[in-house]
Design a protein that fits this description.
With about 200 residues, the protein is an alpha+beta fold. It contains 8 helices and 4 strands, in the order ββαββααααααα.
Length: about 200
């Protein structure tokens, strides 16, 4: 025999989650004085719904078939922009004196004055390392001999700091201004005890 309570009966309804029809249990029951049963069914219903939503969140419904949805690749916040990566490659080539590879980069559209985060250009690095041929090539492709980095240094200042006297003379012949920058190449030459690196005005 049945008691005075009527049995609960789960009812299935259709819902849409990202276009996929899913069945969610809706719990219905007759009046019940046992509140603990109500709490249990509520917890079970909410939990089941959350699990279903989580399971179908990566699925799509196409023609009766559930397929996995392609996820867009996450962007690495530490990955440098393409221009910065190219600048680092060019700086490294200039540092090693790889004039042919550097020329290929420039001939393929890379700016001869492409700088890193500090404003350092390949010409500054080539001057600092005494690579005369790289200096000539960069200037021939439009590199600015008087450009400043964030430290106020020009390519000529970089050459003076590393006491690359032949590069200093080459840059001056190519139009570098000894008094450009803060400190200027002339001031740096005096401060390191090599005023002879810069011709008198």
């Amino acid at each position: 025999m049945l008691s005075g309570r009527r049995r609960r009966r789960p009812v299935l309804v259709r819902d849409q989650v990202r276009g996929a029809p899913v069945a969610l249990p809706v719990l219905t029951a007759a009046a019940d004085t046992r509140s603990s049963d109500w709490g249990l069914w509520i917890v079970l219903g909410v939990g089941a719904t959350a699990i279903l939503v989580w399971l179908v969140s990566g699925l799509r419904y196409t023609g009766g078939v559930l397929d996995t949805m392609p996820l867009e690749p996450a962007l690495d916040p530490l990955s440098p922009p393409a221009a910065t990566r190219e600048a680092r490659v060019c700086l490294d080539l200039a540092r090693r004196g790889e004039v042919e590879q550097l020329r290929d980069y420039i001939c393929n559209g890379v700016d001869a004055d492409l700088a890193d985060e500090d404003g350092t250009t390949p010409l500054m690095v080539a001057a600092d390392n005494g690579h005369r041929q790289v200096v000539r090539t960069l200037v021939a492709h439009g590199a600015d001999v008087n450009r400043l980095n964030q430290h106020g240094h020009t390519p000529l200042t970089c050459a003076v700091l590393s006491q690359q006297s032949s590069v200093v003379q080459l840059l001056i012949r190519l139009g570098a201004d000894p008094d450009q920058g803060a400190p200027s190449a002339r001031d740096v030459a005096a401060s390191i005890g090599r005023p002879d690196l810069i011709p008198a005005p």
